[in-house]
Specification:
The complex is a heterotrimer of chains A (about 500), B (about 475) and C (about 100).
Chain A (H helix, E strand, L loop, with lengths): L1 H23 L5 H27 L4 E8 L2 E7 L1 H24 L6 H20 L3 H19 L5 H32 L18 H19 L6 H5 L5 H9 L2 H17 L1 H7 L2 H20 L4 H21 L3 H32 L10 H4 L1 H15 L5 H15 L4 H26 L19 H19 L7 H12 L12
Antiparallel strand pairs in A: 1-2
Chain B lengths: L8 H18 L4 H26 L2 E4 L10 E4 L1 H21 L5 H23 L3 H20 L4 H32 L4 H7 L4 H18 L8 H7 L2 H27 L4 H24 L3 H18 L1 H7 L1 H32 L8 H6 L1 H15 L5 H15 L3 H22 L17 H16 L4 H8 L5 H5 L2
Chain C lengths: L2 H22 L3 H22 L11 H31 L13
The chains are: A mainly alpha (about 500), B mainly alpha (about 475), C mainly alpha (about 100).
């Protein structure tokens, strides 16, 4: 049984150790650094595959270490954590490749890749956390290690962004700490448990539990960028493209969304949360965020800012799926964790390519760019259609389940929200696509670099192509065994007790 | 049951640094060697003493066979051991750091004074009677004042003088309390006093005088006025040991007296201490945030962090032993983290020739190890997981929420946020590229690594809580203070 | 009221007088003297209380304490005076400077 202890630790170590070693490397040791990064990333993927196999066959993976006399540091692998870990390990590998290309020749790369690895470590730790205190630990670690990444360029603008980011996330972290300690004084335990561990609490504690719930959600909402706590996200856009990509697809915003899932499912328990009446307001909050984010995205000319507000909107889908408190919607929300990750990282990779290769930062500069960079824009197009929710790209699956799920719990008004959001998505993505493919390119690009006969460097082109392809595959093959959808249904069965989703997918 | 067992370690812990102080005074050329050897032997002796405590339980020894009330007793339990251990660890780091820090003239005085201070600290932690504590307190204070003045210059001398006056006043107030207690109960032995003390005006007066004196030395708000100037103007290793160890020593005495003598007396006093602690957190953090000089920022941070130690007092009556474990944990992790921080700040100051925060860019970027040390120590100071500071803060917060003390909980959380604000105010400059290209003084490896290792230790503490708590259970002094 | 208590009260008075002077006078020499006065007051209290038992042979412990205390006070005064001379040279007067500006 030793493997069951060592595997979670190895999973953490596979990015922690490379990160720490990279800090000590001299700037010019490119080969060693690249080797370390890729070895760690590949090792992590192998470990994830091994664990998938194990968890599917009922294997338990758990590490425990006493942190306080009655409180442990717990790493535990369950189906939900594997979902998140597999997303982050795949995207880490691709983003690392991308970042190597993106940052070629720029200063402070050892620092960058060191913190980059720590960022993934924190994300994996979040996923593995088996109780709230462990979760909190990695949540704060994530805040600390993403700060240097956001500040990486070292300009006045990025300093300001870093400051704003810290203000939001530190305050959020403080709320979480408060909520966690308070809960602990009531219950004496913080272990994540299927269907929660609070349902036995006496009625007199219910008002307190509602307050604690609000504190938790407020704490997570900062990272998940729920309105009105989304302010930092657009500012953080000054970070280098690979950082934005990782932040928006896996690391930070997903940490918030994942936290909401953990608290609703494994702390309060979905039934108890419904009983407390806290899910309804969360649905409204998510709906508002979905529409608000899309509306704001509509008016951004800066491409990365437009994508950032799109993230605000899209991540709220996950929250919506959780808050709807029905199994079908839960599948939609949870699977969007993966789907949104794949699509959004593609979009950010592409935006980075445009900026690096042609110096394009604004939507208004994108006329005819499809002819100059057809591969990049193809990937961008696939991801954009996915975001809009067009079949057969992954985004469609999420939205379908959310819509059906909303109806299943008699919240049909949300169909309007979903439809409205899709329309708005179309309204801010289609003009970009139209301009890129059908308008005449300008005489000169703002800042063009040439890469021989290729449209851009391999390391920059390959990752978005792969992620776009993945977004397509998980959409088309959603019903295949071991697709994210299938795995999510497995997770939802555990969180809701017994349940077999029977919704048909038209494809 | 107290075992009267013999072991050479405590005597060695006191006599060795004392002898080494004399040696380094007489033979200044080999002072560095003497210092390093002493530091290493002390570390080993602490381990040996810990071993002894683990197997034999609480230690008590009558020096020269006289015994109380006339003779001097040495006493050691788990709390003593932890204080000695932290002192040994921080002391070792300071010793290594100081090897290259001082010029020949300053080193001539630094080593004897530092070793003398170390002897005073060890003796203080091992003392069993309140008069002997007075002597060690004075020894410590005078060595500390001289160390502050070491560098010379207007700020350092003024800071040292103010510090001297404050510390002498504190000692006299404390001695007055000793006199009253001896008058009232006919002994100066803490254990005997604990048996005899009762609700009499003389006990109250003694509590007031000794408490005020010790709190003045511990720099609890609003008695902190002397601290920022002294701690900020001293040489870096001295700042480190003042903030990490010296203020903790007087707090240690206060804690001992509180458990043994005063806790049953002072329900309202506990609340006063808690209130002052809360004000210290807010005021100190706010002042730290306002500073434009790095070392002053770190010094005000000490004022704030000392506040946390006192916030626990009003909670203790209900929360019990585990809360005191939290306080000790905060004390230890602050000692490690703050020593690391001052040493890192010293490196930045030495490298760039100044400690103006807004101009730190270049130093911060050229000294990644020192910056990392500052950042890691900062994590512990902010109380973020995983760090020793987090464990301590968690236990305090838990007690506050358990008892519905919302104001105290809020102060602790706000204090953490303010700490984040002032630490990141410094770290923010680690990323902006600098334009100035001035001359700079390189930093030797020992000076870069000593703070980093201490900072690592303060993080690592986050995972050692169960082990250290069980050490504290050796002759736990907290039972009495917690109960009642 | 026996003489021991009288002496003790006088000691307390001297202590308070010293405290008053320490706080009030800006001149460092006066401050140092004030601290010495406070110490003397305290020693007087100690010696007086040694006789509190009323037995013919006074309690020896306080006397031992006073001797130790005098040694401490002596060395503290020496340190304070030495420091004062340095401060006076630096400030051009034997007073503490109020401004806390930190010269690098």
């Amino acid at each position: 049984m030793s493997g069951s202890v060592w595997l979670p630790l190895l999973l953490i170590a596979s990015s922690l150790l490379p990160g720490l070693i990279i800090f000590g490397l001299a700037e010019r040791r490119v080969v060693v650094r690249t080797l370390l990064n890729l070895t760690g990333a590949l090792l992590k993927m192998v470990l994830v595959v091994v664990m998938f196999w194990g968890v599917y066959h009922g294997q338990q993976y758990e590490v425990r270490l006493a942190l306080l006399p009655q409180l442990d540091f717990v790493l535990r692998v369950d189906a939900l954590s594997l979902l998140f870990i597999s997303l982050s390990s795949v995207l880490w590998l691709l983003t690392t490749v991308y970042a190597i290309g993106y940052l070629e020749g720029s200063p402070h790369r050892s620092r960058f890749f060191g913190f980059f690895s720590l960022c993934v470590t924190a994300t994996v730790g979040l996923a593995l956390a088996g109780n709230l205190i462990t979760f909190l630990l990695f949540y704060e670690l994530l805040t600390l290690v993403t700060y240097p990444l956001i500040m990486h360029r070292g300009t006045e603008v990025s300093r300001r962004a870093g400051k704003i980011y810290l203000r939001y996330t530190m305050a959020g972290g403080a709320l979480l700490l408060l909520a966690t300690v308070w809960l602990y004084t009531l219950t004496g335990t913080l272990e994540f448990t299927y269907q929660g561990f609070l349902s036995d609490m006496a009625t007199q504690h219910h008002p307190t539990l509602v307050i604690i719930f609000v504190l938790f959600i407020a704490g997570f909402a900062v990272k998940a960028a729920l309105v009105p706590l989304h302010g930092w996200l657009a500012e953080a856009m000054v970070a280098p493209a690979p950082v934005s990509a990782l932040l928006h697809a896996v690391a930070v915003v997903k940490a918030g969304a994942f936290g909401i899932m953990r608290v609703v499912y494994d702390v309060f328990g979905i039934d108890f949360a419904v009983l407390l009446g806290v899910t309804g307001p969360l649905v409204v909050l998510a709906a508002i965020t979905i529409i608000y984010g899309s509306l704001r995205a509509l008016f951004q000319d800066d491409l990365k800012r437009r994508l950032a507000f799109s993230t605000v909107s899209q991540v709220a889908y996950i929250t919506l799926g959780v808050a709807l408190a029905g199994p079908i919607a839960a599948v939609g929300g949870m699977v969007h964790l993966v789907h949104q990750g794949l699509m959004k990282i593609t979009l950010f990779f592409c935006a980075g390519n445009l900026a690096e290769t042609l110096g394009i930062h604004k939507v208004s500069e994108m006329n005819g760019v499809g002819r100059r960079m057809p591969w990049t824009m193809s990937a961008f197009t696939i991801a954009a259609f996915g975001m809009i929710g067009a079949p057969p790209v992954a985004g469609f699956i999420s939205k379908w389940y959310l819509g059906v799920g909303a109806m299943a719990v008699d919240q049909s008004w949300l169909l309007l929200v979903l439809a409205g959001s899709s329309l708005l998505n179309a309204a801010y993505f289609l003009p970009i696509l139209h301009a890129a493919w059908f308008r005449e390119p300008p005489e000169t690009w703002p800042e063009e670099r040439h890469f021989g006969r290729k449209e851009t460097a391999w390391a920059l082109l390959l990752p978005p192509l792969v992620t776009a392809l993945l977004a397509l595959i998980v959409g088309v093959l959603a019903l295949a065994p071991f697709s994210p959808l299938a795995w999510v249904q497995f997770v939802v069965q555990q969180e809701f007790g017994v349940f077999q989703p029977k919704t048909n997918i038209p494809n | 049951m107290i075992l009267h067992s013999e072991t050479p370690w405590p005597a060695l812990l006191i006599l060795l640094p004392l002898a080494a102080a004399m040696l380094s005074f007489l033979f200044p050329r080999s002072a560095k060697f003497t210092g390093v050897v002493t530091a290493i032997i002390i570390a080993l002796a602490v381990v040996g003493f810990g071993w002894h405590l683990q197997s034999e339980g609480v230690y008590r020894h009558a020096v020269g066979g006289w015994g109380a009330p006339l003779g001097i007793d040495l006493y050691g339990d788990g709390l003593t051991l932890l204080m000695l251990a932290v002192t040994a660890l921080v002391g070792l780091a300071i010793t290594l750091y100081s090897l290259d820090y001082f010029n020949t003239e300053q080193a001539r005085w630094f080593w004897p004074l530092w070793l003398l201070l170390w002897a005073a600290l060890n003796a203080l932690f091992l003392s069993a009677d309140i008069f002997n504590l007075y002597i060690t307190l004075e020894l410590m204070g005078m060595a500390a004042v001289a160390l502050v003045a070491l560098k010379g210059g207007r700020d350092a001398l003024n800071g040292a003088m103010r510090y001297l006056l404050a510390t002498l006043l504190g000692s006299l107030a404390y001695l007055f309390g000793v006199v009253l207690l001896y008058h009232g109960y006919g002994t100066v032995d803490i254990a005997l006093l604990a048996e005899r003390i009762d609700h009499q005006p003389v006990a109250w007066a003694a509590l007031g005088l000794m408490g005020a004196g010790l709190l003045l030395k511990t720099a609890l708000f609003p008695l902190h006025f002397w601290l920022p100037a002294a701690h900020a103007s001293a040489p870096a290793p001295v700042s480190a040991l003042l903030s990490a160890l010296v203020v903790k020593a007087s707090f240690y005495i206060f804690l001992r007296l509180w458990f043994a003598l005063f806790a049953p007396l002072g329900g309202e006093v506990a609340w006063l201490l808690g209130l002052l602690g809360a004000l210290a957190i807010l005021w100190g953090s706010w002042q730290a945030l306002r500073q434009t000089r790095l070392k002053l920022l770190v010094a005000y941070s000490t004022v704030a962090q000392l506040g946390y130690l006192f916030v626990a007092f009003p909670l203790a009556a209900v929360a019990g032993v585990v809360l005191w474990h939290g306080v000790i944990y905060l004390l230890i992790s602050h000692a490690l983290a703050k020593a690391a921080m001052f040493m890192a700040a010293g490196n930045l100051l030495r490298f760039g020739g100044h400690d103006r925060i807004v101009d730190l860019n270049r130093s911060v970027q050229q000294l990644p190890l020192s910056t990392a040390a500052f950042a890691l120590a900062g994590v512990s100071i902010m109380g973020l997981p995983p760090s020793g500071g987090f464990i301590g803060k968690w236990l305090l917060l838990e007690a506050a929420l358990q008892q519905g003390q919302w104001a105290l909980a809020a102060v602790m959380i706000v204090g953490g946020l303010l700490a984040a604000a002032y630490i990141f105010k410094v770290l923010g400059y680690a990323f902006t590229p600098s334009t100035s290209r001035e001359e700079s003084i390189p930093i030797p490896a020992t000076m870069a690594w000593a703070p980093l290792l201490l900072a690592f230790a303060s993080i690592l503490l986050g995972f050692l809580a169960p082990a250290l708590f069980s050490l504290l259970d050796i002759g736990s002094p907290f039972e009495r203070g917690a109960g009642s | 009221m026996n003489s021991a208590i009288l002496y003790a009260l006088v000691g307390v008075g001297i202590f308070s007088l010293g405290l008053y002077a320490l706080i009030l006078h800006p001149h460092l020499l006066r401050k140092i003297l004030a601290i010495n006065v406070m110490g003397s007051g305290l020693f007087l209290v100690l010696i007086a209380l040694a006789k509190r038992t009323g037995e013919p042979l006074p309690d020896l412990v306080p006397q031992a304490m006073v001797i130790t205390g005098i040694v401490v006070a002596f060395s503290a005064t020496a340190l304070a005076l030495a420091l004062m001379v340095r401060v006076a040279k630096e400030n051009h007067r034997a007073e503490l400077s109020d401004d806390e500006s930190q010269q690098p």
